[in-house]
Design brief:
Blueprint: H1 4-13, H2 26-29, H3 37-43, H4 46-58, H5 64-80, E1 85-89, E2 102-103, E3 105-106, E4 115-116, H6 120-124, E5 125-126, E6 146-150, E7 157-159, E8 162-171, H7 180-198, E9 208-222, H8 223-227, H9 230-235, H10 260-275, E10 280-285, E11 291-296, E12 299-300, H11 301-321, E13 324-327, E14 341-349, H12 362-381, H13 383-388, E15 411-412, H14 415-425, H15 434-444, E16 464-466, E17 471-473, H16 482-510, H17 515-529, H18 542-551, H19 559-563, H20 569-577, H21 583-638, H22 642-645, H23 647-678, H24 683-694, H25 696-711, H26 722-727
Parallel strand pairs: 1-8, 15-16
Antiparallel strand pairs: 1-2, 3-4, 5-6, 6-8, 7-8, 9-11, 9-12, 9-13, 9-14, 10-11, 14-17, 16-17
Helix pairs in contact: 4-5, 7-16, 10-11, 12-16, 12-17, 14-17, 16-17, 21-23, 21-24, 21-25, 23-24, 23-25
Bound molecules: adenosine-5'-diphosphate (ADP) and magnesium ion (MG).
Adenosine-5'-diphosphate (ADP) binds near residues 298, 345, 346 and 469.
Length: about 725
């Protein structure tokens, strides 16, 4: 008797590592499929080249005529590389990237004169027929027009035989319909605010760029095995499955030797990344079996976000070549670690200074402390908004479950910096005496070591940790587009820096304080005010949950709860003040995210009921029938004594019946709860009912399915088991 599972398993037996062509050295091939400044210099006229560079560096507008020349050069470059199609590449609010390919090829009306054509208009703007992207009510179907517009700050690239042009996606009325547009606005806001604050320390600073280095965790599962699981195929995670006897208990996978099949996948992926100019650097095994991580060198945040979106797509494609399905879900398997995407974040000046890196002089350290403390205050004031920025149905399995990190946002800074902040708390009110200043410069600010990297403890339980020269936002989900988190983080820091500047200026002007005195005074108050957000202990402990509640920190364990902060009055005002999003855009996003949440739970509920009733229950009955036959046989042979001999079989028969009846009853109740949710017209209420009344059935139904998996003859069990999914490589 051959199940789908056994067929899938036998397919994996003959798997050999797929050969990967050696390309040239990384430094030689890096960016060769990117329209970067080297290829621009080669293919653009000097004027066109200058226009693009100035758009990248100063956000200058590119006029139509120049765009025409740029398009021509870009096309020549692409054709020289065998490209046939182009696409505007964008990031709609579905979470995936979107592309619609058009051929360069054109003919005249009568079909003559075939040529390759690509003009300025096609480069700058397109109108994808995009009525079915999520828009949260911004675009009614009668005006279902949105357009994509070229983002020259992220270079065009070639994937396969297609030229991809990074774009924003906006409605005709100007509202953002994607992840990139608000991100670009938030980055502009933080640039303005941070540059203004930098002026206190260095007049030469003209631009500040946020930097992002993401670390992407993922699982690899053999594609035949993944295809044998309807839950993995449809929801990206396993909805049932008894845990494997061996999981991650032995800690023998983390940083272990990388299996050859997997290493070849990684090498192939790295080759693609090099061609695409994605500076990947690190690869290793993660904690859970078949879990891995990849990290690049950090980049300017917009580019880094594009590169992460791109790599999530490329990973799947490379995975196919190696017969792997790449699981980016935050929690594909119960009982072992889930996946996250640490967002390492900092700000960097056009003079080459990392604003979150301690400096060598007291003055540069004061600048460091200014940005450091302002970031802490931004997080303190907006912890709920930050939590909302990472809220999704799949990330709920990490935040708020027994998983890293907790749903409570706190900031970890390490012992040394805690001491520095404590010392700064006692700075005098008002003007500082020369003695005090000298003391501060020598003994407090001056004592911050220029290399903190080795000194900041590695508290892995903190969702927002300072790690020597950057903050690491660890609560971002592995499948998320980092733009959401980055938009919020950069916006709240921008707002905070603006407020800081106002306060310092008013002390300088109103109280005739010196600049340093004013800065010390404001920072002192910030340190006192924001103590509650700082936490150095174990973020997973129950004590912390209690303590955090006393401190008034939020602990939103579910997405519908967490998302509310997004549309709070203060959040709407903040986004509007910075021109990051107007209230229509924010409210639309809130609506879209709630709807996505409800739909995800809806799909999971349907898939679970389907698996339980069409796979698990029929299999259990078949096995039960085998047992019944056996009991009948025993009765034939042993007559009245059969009950003693068949005792265990009879118990299992009863147990199976009891599990089946609970599965059926609970599946029906869950369907009723879904019906109730679906009948609601308010998305908010619908998401709440899915969260509070539908989702709780998942664990109950799963429990009984997993018990059956453990009872039923392995030979006939139809669903590929955890041990097979996790240890085939
Ligand atoms: P881990 O957290 O796994 O121990 P690291 O702390 O070394 O690893 O984090 C490395 C990540 O931090 C890399 O992706 C790197 O590019 C990024 N990173 C380093 N410096 C910065 C910075 N100034 N801004 C943003 N990201 C940075
Ligand atoms: Mg990290």
């Amino acid at each position: 008797m051959s199940t789908f599972r056994s067929q899938a398993i036998s397919q994996t037996y003959g798997r050999k590592p797929v050969h990967v062509e050696e390309l040239d050295r990384k430094s030689v091939i890096f960016g060769s499929n990117v329209f970067n400044s080297k290829s621009m210099r080669q293919f653009l006229t000097p004027d066109a080249y200058k226009a693009v560079q100035s758009a990248i560096q100063h956000g200058a507008k590119i006029d139509r005529k120049v765009a025409e020349y740029i398009a021509m050069g870009m096309k020549e470059w692409a054709l020289s590389k065998g490209v046939t199609h182009y696409t505007h590449w964008f990031q709609p609010l579905t979470g995936a990237t979107a592309e619609k390919h058009d051929a360069f090829f054109e003919t005249s009306f009568d079909g003559s004169d075939p040529i390759e054509k690509f003009g300025g208009t096609q480069l700058v703007q397109q109108e994808p027929d995009a009525s079915s992207f999520p828009n949260g009510g911004i675009r009614n179907t009668f005006e279902a027009r949105g357009y994509t517009a070229w983002d020259p700050t992220s270079p065009a690239f070639i994937f396969g035989t297609t030229l991809c042009i990074p774009t924003v996606f906006v409605s005709y009325t100007g509202e953002a319909l994607d992840f990139k547009a608000p991100l670009l606005r938030a980055l502009a806001a933080v640039d303005d605010a941070a540059t203004a604050v930098c002026q206190y320390f260095d007049k030469n600073v003209k631009k500040v760029s946020a930097t992002l280095g993401w670390e992407q965790e993922y699982f690899l599962v053999d594609s035949a095995l993944a295809a044998s699981r309807p839950d993995l195929t449809l929801t990206g995670r396993t909805l049932i499955g008894h845990s494997s006897a061996k999981g991650q208990q032995l800690d023998d996978h983390y940083f272990g030797s990388i299996p050859t099949r997997i290493l070849n996948f990684m090498r192939d992926l790295e080759n693609e990344c090099m061609l695409l100019g994605i500076p990947v650097k690190t690869r290793h095994n993660e904690v859970a079996p078949n879990q891995f991580e990849l990290a690049p060198i950090f980049e300017e945040a917009n580019l880094a976000v594009d590169h992460n979106s791109l790599i999530m797509d490329v990973m799947q494609k490379v995975g196919e070549r190696h017969n792997f399905k790449v699981l980016l879900h935050e929690k594909p398997f119960a009982g072992i670690n889930g996946s996250g995407k640490h967002n390492n974040w900092s700000m960097s000046t056009d003079t080459g200074v990392n604003l979150l890196g301690p400096g060598k002089t007291p003055m540069s350290n004061l600048q460091f402390l200014t940005f450091f403390i302002n970031t802490i205050k931004a997080v303190y004031k907006n912890e709920q908004l930050l939590r909302a920025s990472i809220a999704t149905a799949s990330n709920d399995h990490r935040l708020g479950a027994n998983e890293a990190p907790p749903a409570i946002i706190s900031v970890f800074i390490g012992q040394q910096l805690t001491k520095v902040l404590e010392d700064l708390e006692s700075v005098s009110n008002g003007k500082l005496s020369p003695e005090e200043k000298t003391d501060l410069k020598l003994n407090v600010v001056g004592k911050i070591p220029d290399v903190l990297l080795d000194n900041t403890d590695r508290n892995r339980t903190s969702p927002f940790a300072f790690t020597g020269n950057k903050f690491e936002f660890r609560a971002v989900g592995s499948s998320a587009n980092c733009a959401n988190a980055m938009t919020v983080l950069n916006a709240i820091v921008a707002k905070q820096l603006k407020d800081f500047k106002k306060e310092v200026d008013s002390l300088i002007e109103g109280k005739e304080m010196k600049k340093d005195d004013a800065i010390f005074n404001v920072l002192r108050e910030y340190i006192k005010e924001t103590k509650n957000i700082r936490f150095e202990g174990d973020g997973y402990s129950d004590e912390w949950a209690e303590e955090a509640a006393k401190r008034g920190l939020s602990n939103h364990k579910t997405t519908p709860q967490a998302l509310k902060a997004k549309v709070s009055e203060s959040a709407l005002a903040l986004f509007e003040e910075l021109n990051v999003m107007n209230h229509v855009e924010v409210e639309a996003r809130y609506e879209i995210e709630l709807e996505e949440y409800a739909k995800k739970i809806q799909i999971e509920g349907r898939v679970l009921a389907d698996i339980a009733r069409n796979h698990v229950v029929p299999t259990a009955i078949r096995y039960q029938n085998v047992l019944i036959e056996n009991v009948k046989g025993l009765k034939d042979i042993f007559g009245n004594n059969f009950e003693i001999i068949a005792k265990e079989q009879i118990n299992i028969i009863k147990e199976i019946s009891s599990h089946i009846s609970t599965i059926n009853a609970k599946s029906e109740e869950m369907t009723e709860a879904r019906k109730k949710a679906n009948a609601l017209t308010s998305t908010e209420e619908m998401a709440n009912v899915y969260c509070d009344e539908v989702k709780p059935y998942f664990d109950v139904i799963r429990y009984h399915c997993d018990k059956l998996e453990n009872l039923v003859d392995d030979e006939i069990w139809p669903l590929t088991k955890y041990r097979e999914l996790l240890f085939t490589r």
